[in-house]
Amino acid sequence: MKKPIKIKPLNFSGDFKYAPAPEGKEHIQLKEKYSLFINGKFVAPSSKKYFDTINPSTEKKIASIADANAADVNLAVKAARTAYDKTWSKMPASERGKYLYRIARIIQEKARELAVIESMDGGKPIRESRDIDVPLAAAHFFYYAGWADKLDYAFPGKKASPIGVAGQIIPWNFPLLMAAWKIAPALACGNTVVLKPAETTPLTALKLAEIFQEAELPPGVVNIITGAGATGAALVNHPGIDKIAFTGSTDVGKLIQKAIAGTNKKYTLELGGKAANIIFEDAAIDQAVEGIINGIFFNQGHVCCAGSRLFVQEGVAKEVVRKLKDRISTLLVGDPMDKNTDIGAINSKEQLSKIKSLVNAGIKEGGECWQPECSIPSKGYWFRPTLFMNVAQSHRIVQEEIFGPVLAIQTFRTVEEVIEKANNTPYGLSGGVWTDKGAKIFNVTGKMKAGVVWANTYNKFDPTSPFGGYKESGMGREGGLHGLMPYVKLS
Amino acid sequence: MATKTASKVKAKVKVTAKSAVKSAIKIKPTSANGSTNGHAVTTSRLDVRKTYKIYIDGKFPRTESGRIYPLKDAAGNIIANICRGSRKDLRESIVSNRKAQSGWSSKSAYNRGQILYRIAETLESRKVQFVDILTKQGDTAASAKKEVDSAIDNLVYYAGWCDKYIQVFSSVNPVESSHFNFSYPEPTGVVTVMAPMKQGLLGIVNLIAPMIIGGNVCTVFASEKYPMTAVDFAEVLNASDVPGGVVNIITGLQKEFIGHASSHMDVNAILFSDLDQAQRKLIQENASLNVKRVLDFSKEDMLSPYRILAAQEIKTTWHPVGN
Q: How far away is chain B from the Cα of A261, in angstroms, using its nearest Cα?
């Protein structure tokens, strides 16, 4: 009789250490103080107030940022309106496109600087900002540049015309990329923009403003106003705005939808998520484990489409959990500027306390919490990658968006059961399926109520690929052909 | 025994009916409830009045509330007692909608298209009835005829889109990585529909056809002025192989429904075409409770695949390519 093979637990606390591999910062150019970008110029805020943007991995101040009040918002909207009426909507579409191509090219040229600033300001690993955020931002401008003079082919039977002035509010998790997702299609369709970046991550948007100057984009076509919630509210409620595009939490999205009730403002919302990542017994397990890790720990889990609910088919549950723990034990949590870092800093103190409180709720509700024994720096905001086992559908950590590196694991037996569980959420942004069977992929992805579904991969983005949610995850799409629709009037 | 009793009863009814006709004829036509109920009065027999009920889950129950409102003609005569539906009816209707949705949307496009076409066929065969009932509710015969013709033609128009709109609005996306990436529309789900006050038949058809052709299911709140047409149209749906729960029709006072139809948490979208500013505002405020899609068709082309697209969600799938 054969002896059962004993699986030795892997030991990661040995002598093997990575040498530090920090990305250089000496080449970046940052001002000490940033004012508002209105009508092609940087202007001081009428509030005269500034706030600090800090590096979440060191808690040190990087720069002072202008706090725009309603009067500043008004100036920005007026500049956008004038630019819309006099310049942008009158310009031949092919010329509009050429400006966007220019912007794409300059982003590519300044890619490294932008990546470094992104990681300093937001805390994400340099590997991610360098390989994902910045190249994708450039690609978005390049993609939509080409649409500018081809809109007649995008909407069969209809003539597309611009809407007017778009007010755009973006989150702190992908600051530059979200700015690109919002600005590129809006400009391509002939609209002008007032953009408000998140208060914790305004720097790359302001660097983008400098790029617009360098590209000689006509003044007022894009205006960038910085500030917190009050600035955003002033923008949403400004009567001169024709369209609101918002990416952020479902709670704020609902407030916006309510605030503009009774107006003729158009709106698109890209809100929260609680995505199901489903792994079947016939999946390539090691590949799936990598995908699950990427699905939840990418960008510290600050991803609206993060695969935060893992569903494992019972037969492989033990193996998957063991391999997940092993793999998580090798993840490096620490300095975002280090090229070896897997998990960077949590974006802000507020977000860190939100993650902590939800994790505590998970423990109180009876979930089994597991974290690796990795070291974390003493300064800055950090949270270890976390697994929750023995959780139920009703648990808060299964229902609520955590927006952090926390994965809730549940098991299932049949396809019907897992689809029922996967769809049992008010959200519907994304999902993942891991299986070796193509037929099963089409079956399961077809039944998931979610706007983006990845099969045998996760957290992949592309400018040609539409992104956006069902149900309370929002409405409208960004990216691809379908991403034009929110920025046009059809007649 | 049983037969004997039955025939006796029948005979009794006949006698009563005859005398009733006589007495009915004596009553002045202006008096209350001197109803013609959609049918001509003859001196030879008493017309059989139709009880107008609501339509939920393929059945015709009375409103749970037990309330009615009188529908009057231009002269102020009551022509029917109409169910004044309640919030409870709405809730039951949404439960039935939700149950029906996945079955309806998973039917083949060809099949759904044929069912839509079947509605048109059934309506065509009942044209006289609909012209008659629209006239009873105040339309001229000419406009009623035009409206019924349009309703039938529009149903045929949308029936034809069933297996085409997905082709028109889908895309294969040339992503950089090794994936087959495609996007296509899927139904939003359960849609509450505030039928316009005017055009009792066409108003409903123009709103629901683009919804159900796209795999959505609806609860329609009928026009207060044309409830009889709405209920008669429910009978058409019922006779046209439209599964129960795909379209439910509730009569009553729209102002009692707007709040609930827009705030119900298991409704995905709300559709209307002729509401005033205050009503639109209320709907949008309530819609924010669960990020409902608010669909205003007042300015949309009546015949357009973009009406179908309005209640669709684009799903994008990343399918692996490899060995």
A: 5
CA atoms within 13 A on the CB side of A488: 22
Query: Domain A276-455 maps to which CATH number in 3.90.550.10, 3.20.20.70, 3.40.309.10, 1.10.3210.10?
Result: 3.40.309.10
- On chain A, the residues whose CB falls within 8 A of the CB of B182 are none
Query: Per-residue pLDDT for B23 more than 90?
Result: no
Please tell me whether the interface predicted TM-score (ipTM) of this complex is above 0.85: yes
**Is B36's pLDDT higher than 90?**
no
For residues A283 and A317, is the Cβ–Cβ distance under 8 A?
no
- Domain boundaries of chain A, sorted by first residue: 33-271+471-490, 276-455
Q: Alpha-carbon distance B44 to A317, whole Å?
A: 79
Indicate the domain borders of chain B. Answer: 87-320
Nearest 5 degrees, angle CA A338-CA A343-CA A345?
A: 85
Query: pLDDT of A423-448, one tens digit each?
Result: 999 999 999 999 999 999 999 999 99
Q: Please answer yes or no on whether A475 and B306 come within 8 Å at the CB atom.
A: no
| Cα B289 to Cα A90: distance, rounded to the nearest angstrom | 39
Per the annotation, the verdict on A304 as an active-site residue is yes
Q: What residues of chain B, 285 to 304, have a C-beta less than 8 Å from chain A?
A: 285, 287-291, 293, 304
Pick the CATH number of A33-271+471-490 from 3.10.520.10, 3.40.605.10, 3.20.20.70, 3.40.50.300: 3.40.605.10
> Catalytic: A374?
no
Residue A429 to residue A391: CA distance in whole angstroms: 22
In angstroms, the separation between the Cα of residue B259 and the nearest Cα of chain A is 14
Fold of the domain built from segment(s) B87-320: Aldehyde Dehydrogenase; Chain A, domain 1 (3.40.605)
CA gap A433, A211 in Å, rounded: 39
Residue B61 DSSP label: P
Mean pLDDT of chain A, nearest integer:
96
| Tens digit of each residue's pLDDT (9 = 90 or more) over A252-285 | 999 999 999 999 999 999 999 999 999 999 999 9
Percent of chain A at pLDDT > 90 equals 96
CA distance A188 to chain B (A): 19
How does pLDDT run across A99-134, given as a tens digit for each residue? 999 999 999 999 999 999 999 999 999 999 999 999
